[in-house]
Amino acid sequence: MDYKTSGVDIEAGENAVQRIKTLVKRTYNQNVLTELGSFGGLYQIDLTKWREPVMVSSTDGVGTKLIVAQKSGIFDTVGQDLVNHCVNDIFVQGAEPQYFMDYIGCGKLDPEKIEKIISGMTKACLENGMSLIGGEMAEMPGIYQREDFDLVGTIVGLIEKRKIITGEAICEGDIIVGFKGNGLHTNGYSLARKIFFDVMKKDVNDYVPELQETVAEALLKIHPSYYPSLKNWTDPEINHGMAHITGGGLPGNVKRVIPDGLCARIDAQSWKVPEVFQVMQEAAGISNEEMFKAFNMGVGFVAIVDPDYADQLCLETGGFKIGIMTVAEKSSKVLIQYA
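Structure (tokenized):
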């Protein structure tokens, strides 16, 4: 016996690394001090730029969206999803992304598949102005089935200590500005798959007339990063709080930044809910409350800002007003008016 017959192909791993080296190196800047393949990635902080730098880090995955990617054979988009999701998570506090690291676990290592995933990651890293400095590819038969794979990313960003956005400055009268989502992003896929595949009896390549696209096209839209369009709006005197609308939807994520005693009143009629959510809701008979808990419903990111600057923010970034901060009448920090 040898390692390969037990299910682990070292040569395939080396092949995958060679395929992605050029892609990864495109993301490097002067702060990256190591080559791909080192035991640890070295990244130097430019102390001429930062006075009191605070590191902001986060780890996340893409969830069961990976199953849709596997069924459709499309792998580059989930790489972009992963990076952009992580960028949004640290940007909530105003952080500037610096570097990214990934983990890919699989049942059978396919160098071509790995290359496509990493190509998506590097594209998103370049769009967000950061470097992909390392990662791990783990072939683990027995943990994963042959075609299964998992995808996890870790991001590190920096922010000046005095500019951290915490939500503590949010006050009565602040305007809640929403930013357009692009489909399901990376949350709610367990429910979405059940609706499309079990209730509607669709396959990934089936065309959905109401959406004018296939199931795969509808479910694999790339999770956008809000950092490029909002990075000039991180003055904590103006922008009092931000929320990335992920699992838990608007009610579950906006409340995370609201101080006690205040309530975010959101008008769900102030934007058009994307057709994909309407199709799922009608097919499965889901209540508005449940839809807004499971999905972003067309609002992928939220900023809570000084009312004097809300119009300018919307004009410059394409945001739209979805609500206002009020004194809380009950214990709930988020109230959504559906009609």
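The longest strand covers residues 149-160. The mean pLDDT is 95.
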